[in-house]
Amino acid sequence: ACGHKGFCVEVELLFRSIPSPLIAFFFVSVVGMNILANKSIDTGLDWLALDAGFILSWMCFLSMDLIVKRFGLRASNIVSVCALLFNLLMAVIFLLASLIPGEWAESFSDYAFGNEGIVNKAFDSTFRGNWFIVMGSSVAFLVSAIINNITCFLLNRAFHNKTKFRTFAVASYLSTAIGQFIDNIIFALIVSMTLFGWGFVQCLTCATTGMIVELLCEIIFSPLGYRILRGMEENEAGKAYLDYVAERKAQ
Fold this sequence. Notes:
By secondary structure, this protein is mostly helical. It contains nine helices and two strands.
């Protein structure tokens, strides 16, 4: 039983109100980017370091921006925390799967002949993950998500015309740039400096480069995001939740 019935009702209503593809898109991107963050990219430059998590991280920031714009700051923070908890649940599931005796399909490949044990151990280690990485990425995501949501909310509220694409774009781009940099720099300082042996300059360049790449990805896909947002507004998606929140504020 939940001791805070009103909050439980709010959360249940919120997840019923947000389109399920958007929730799935958000949660999958959070889980995927934390798996890919295990891979350090060889850029060929000693001063430039990057991990593969940037491939998916822009997706979760765009999702948060859409939720902030349609459902509000509190809603986006709630969904962000739930996504983090879901990621930790998946980390436990991956850990359990890696402990199950057996062989991965790649161990039967021609290039793995004679090295089956090494291949299986490598895959188990990848999916088992390093819990230091999991916790580092969790801290980085939680802090950056809250800052991104607050920034996006304040920027949206500051604009007079709130229905134009440029309003959505400016708020989304600026909040994403700030949030992504914070996410990258916290993860780099906690994890990459310790496990990968990066120096501070590499952490800084990784955070900056990752932020630029992720921001470019969001710029490319923001028109699609805006269309999704307009669709939610036109279809009055989440009206029950918004009415519930308004009613609680009025009490």
